[in-house]
Amino acid sequence: MVSSFPFYSLLSVTFSAALLSLGALSSSAHAAVAATSASAIYAASCEFSAVEAASASAALGQTVIIPKGRCDWGAKQLTLPAGVAIKGAGRDLTVLRRTAAVPVNTYLVKFDCWNGKRASFSDMTLEGAMVERSEDRGLGLVNGCVDFKVWNAKFTKFTFAGIEVRGAARQRGVIYKSQFIDNYNPALRNLGYGVAVFGDGTWPALELGTANAVFVEENYMSGNRHHITSNNGARYVFRYNTAIANDKTKDFPLVDAHGLSSAPKGTRSWEVYNNAFSANLSSGRVYAGVGMRGGDGIISKNSFSTNIARPIVLQLEYDTICGSSYMQDQIRSAYAWSNVNGAVTSLCPLSIAQNRDYFLIAKSNYKPYNYPHPLRTK
């Protein structure tokens, strides 16, 4: 969280320097930027025009600071190059809202990582419009973001996803200590993810326990259709999260990975461990805790509440092909062990067989990647 002291001291102590810096900006930007320093650009408010002006004047390596407030961004999208960080006054203090329908692939905030620099986002809430026929997204990390960081943030009420990571096979980074709440529109019964990870369609060699994945760790996630989903060669690690289903989402697995479907490739790999899976229901049980439709990986040391009917489900992308020969990108090397209430169910034993395609033992020589993630600053 950003305290008020640096903001006001910067206004008073470096007022002359700020005027010189602001002199190079347009008149509209002049009004929208409160102050600058070597490391930061202070937006005058959380209104879109102010944040856009501050972002336009930021150089690589600087952080755009957004003050506290609750601001309506309508259908607008803020696009930033990687290398410029964006930071609010605190997760519950700076709230940026989407209130209008938007075209497909529109984000509230989008980082374009074509330049190979690091994207950084923290200390604010992004809130979707939850409008039918609008697949709004919160934060976009696109074009192969490497070593990105997202923390102390909240993503809620987005029809498609709170965060979407999309791009090259080597995309990697960490999303931590954030909240993903109610990113699902029950009127659609489709879409609705906390985090969605999509690769570029390549199929690298399987490597588990390395930095080469999107890490989602120590987050609180509730009421999303899937707390995480993936496709098209994606690789992710889901660990140390609190993952909760509710009455609206109980028909779907809390954690998901696609096999071969609409994308050129299915999910490449997943590592799911040390999570607490539970459900807050008025009646019935959750369909599944972890539901994998493709890819390979490990599921270990998770806990599942007893109102989750199938803790771990392994299946094909399409149940109608059960019994056929191996399908491209289906599960071929899955390991599950030391899960509390963690029974494993194969919905097609002919195609996904125990001791051939999945194993109820620890994977030999597997070692989790460093925890906490080395990129974390808090």
In short:
By secondary structure, the protein is mostly beta strands. Helix content is about 10%, strand content about 35%.
What do these coordinates show?
With 378 residues, the chain is mostly beta strands. It has one domain. It is 9% helix and 37% strand. The protein is built from four helices and 32 strands. The protein has helices at residues 4-13, 15-22, 27-32, 48-57, and strands spanning 33-36, 40-43, 63-65, 69-72, 78-81, 85-87, 94-97, 107-112, 120-122, 125-127, 137-142, 146-151, 154-156, 161-166, 172-176, 179-181, 193-198, 214-217, 220-222, 226-231, 235-239, 242-246, 255-257, 269-273, 276-280, 286-292, 296-300, 303-304, 308-314, 334-337, 344-346, 358-359. The strands form four sheets. The protein has a 13-stranded mixed beta sheet, sandwiched between helices. It has a nine-stranded parallel beta sheet with strand order 4-7-10-13-16-19-22-25-28, with no helix packed on it. Strand 1 and strand 2 form a beta hairpin. It is globular and about 65 Å long. The model is unreliable at 1-27 (pLDDT under 50).
The structural domain count equals 1
Bulk shape = globular
How is the largest sheet built, in terms of strand order? Answer: 1-2-3-6-9-12-15-18-21-24-27-30-32
Number of extended strands: 32
Rg from Cα = 22 Å
Mean pLDDT: 91
Amino-to-carboxy terminus distance: 11 Å
The largest sheet, given as strand count, sense and whether it forms a barrel, is: 13 strands, mixed
Number of helices: 4
Which structural category fits the helices and strands? mainly beta
Helix content: under 10%
- What proportion of the residues form beta strands (DSSP E)? 35-45%
Which parts are unreliable, with pLDDT below 50 for 5 consecutive residues or more? Answer: 1-27
